[in-house]
């Protein structure tokens, strides 16, 4: 096969990139290790920032999102037994977030994608501008101008780069999230972020009859130690929400919290996009949106390259990393603010309490949270298309 860009990975980053390349007349092919059914059902993120929604709307991929997504103009912070609402609309000039499950977005992106997707590929190897793999039992090769590594933290793209070519920055947090999906009505109209002496809790939703909820737990937590009764009791205690309903828990898992960045996000003709280049703790709801922002930046650079302005493509890594580190800072700040972290003392706890007081009392502090949460502007626009 011969194409201009080979996209490795059919998550939000790879699929968005493929759409944006196609809109510019740039040929690409997408390869994915998992089956279509798997990637359309795996539970991941659920919060879309304003810039992400605006992009999807402009390129014609937001019809179902607009119908079924849940528009939120704020979030609730709960601590010391009181709930405080952060009003995004007031603080950001009308911006909002949309709660829409990642697997639903992936379905939308796949259903309308023109470039081909090869699912269930195996033994992927990246050798400069040649990508080899096995598909349906047959060894295949794609020769291309550029490779977009959108295959996540554990993918082959970053692993194919020679040792020493990248600098890695990492922080592993001393806690994890126990997440559940439950058949219950949401206890509130907007997300609840709760800081409690027992640990952090988050109440979110995936629709009018399904909730997504999280509890801070130790990183070595086993699911067998958390039967349903214990989960509901901990959520009730930490959230302090009288409207919290109990119901069938039909999905659960433990997710570690970590921050990770590699620099640069390019090696030769290989570009790293999304989780293959960076991981953020889930507290700020940034992972999917950061991946989309990378895809926008890379599509801009590739479009400029094929239009005769190669210097724009050379700016890809620097453009992305400025935004990546801003998002990392916000996610780190939210995590430190709301979690009980080992290694801290009573003085640290009082500082966190003072910061929470400032966020809910000082308009400038609340605005900083709101502007970061609804989403920073992309490094480049997309109206140039």
UniProtKB/TrEMBL annotation:
<keyword id="KW-0274">FAD</keyword>
<dbReference type="InterPro" id="IPR036188">
    <property type="entry name" value="FAD/NAD-bd_sf"/>
</dbReference>
<dbReference type="GO" id="GO:0016709">
    <property type="term" value="F:oxidoreductase activity, acting on paired donors, with incorporation or reduction of molecular oxygen, NAD(P)H as one donor, and incorporation of one atom of oxygen"/>
</dbReference>
<dbReference type="InterPro" id="IPR050641">
    <property type="entry name" value="RIFMO-like"/>
</dbReference>
<dbReference type="InterPro" id="IPR002938">
    <property type="entry name" value="FAD-bd"/>
</dbReference>
<keyword id="KW-0560">Oxidoreductase</keyword>
<dbReference type="GO" id="GO:0071949">
    <property type="term" value="F:FAD binding"/>
</dbReference>
<keyword id="KW-0503">Monooxygenase</keyword>
<keyword id="KW-0285">Flavoprotein</keyword>
<dbReference type="Pfam" id="PF01494">
    <property type="entry name" value="FAD_binding_3"/>
</dbReference>
<feature type="domain" description="FAD-binding">
    <location>
        <begin position="2"/>
        <end position="330"/>
    </location>
</feature>
<protein>
    <submittedName>
        <fullName>4-hydroxybenzoate 3-monooxygenase</fullName>
    </submittedName>
</protein>
């Amino acid at each position: 096969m011969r194409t201009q860009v080979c996209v490795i990975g059919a998550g939000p980053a790879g699929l968005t990139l493929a759409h944006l390349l196609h809109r510019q007349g740039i040929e690409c092919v997408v390869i994915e290790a998992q089956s279509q059914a798997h990637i359309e059902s795996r539970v991941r993120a659920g919060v879309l920032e304003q810039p992400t929604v605006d992009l999807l709307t402009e390129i014609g991929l937001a019809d179902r999102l607009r119908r079924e997504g849940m528009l939120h103009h704020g979030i609730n912070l709960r601590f010391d037994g009181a709930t405080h609402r952060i009003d995004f609309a007031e603080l950001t000039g009308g911006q909002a977030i949309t709660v829409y499950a990642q697997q639903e977005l992936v379905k939308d992106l796949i259903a309308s994608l023109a470039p081909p997707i090869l699912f269930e590929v195996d033994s992927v190897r990246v050798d400069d501008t040649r990508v080899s793999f096995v598909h349906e039992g047959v060894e295949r090769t794609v020769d291309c101008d550029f490779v977009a590594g959108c295959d996540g933290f554990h993918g082959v793209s970053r692993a194919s780069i020679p040792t020493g070519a990248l600098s890695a920055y990492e922080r592993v947090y001393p806690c994890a999230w126990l997440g559940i999906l439950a058949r219950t009505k949401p206890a509130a109209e907007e997300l609840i972020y709760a800081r409690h002496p027992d640990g952090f809790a988050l109440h979110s939703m995936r629709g009018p009859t399904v909730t997504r909820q999280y509890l801070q737990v130790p990183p070595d937590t086993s699911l067998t130690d958390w039967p349903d009764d214990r989960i509901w009791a901990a959520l009730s205690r930490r959230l302090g929400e009288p409207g919290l309903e109990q119901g069938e828990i039909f999905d659960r898992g433990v997710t570690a919290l970590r921050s990770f960045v590699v620099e640069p996000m390019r090696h030769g003709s290989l570009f790293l996009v999304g989780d293959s280049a960076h991981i953020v703790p889930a507290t700020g709801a940034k992972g999917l949106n950061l991946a989309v922002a990378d895809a926008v930046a890379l599509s801009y650079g590739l479009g400029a390259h094929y239009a005769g302005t190669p210097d724009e493509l050379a700016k890809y890594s620097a453009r992305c990393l400025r935004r990546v580190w801003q998002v990392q800072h916000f996610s780190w700040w939210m995590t430190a603010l709301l979690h009980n972290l080992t290694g801290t003392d009573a003085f640290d706890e009082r500082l966190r309490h003072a910061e929470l007081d400032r966020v809910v009392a000082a308009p400038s502090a609340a605005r900083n949270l709101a502007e970061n949460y609804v989403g920073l502007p992309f490094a480049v626009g997309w109206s140039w298309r």
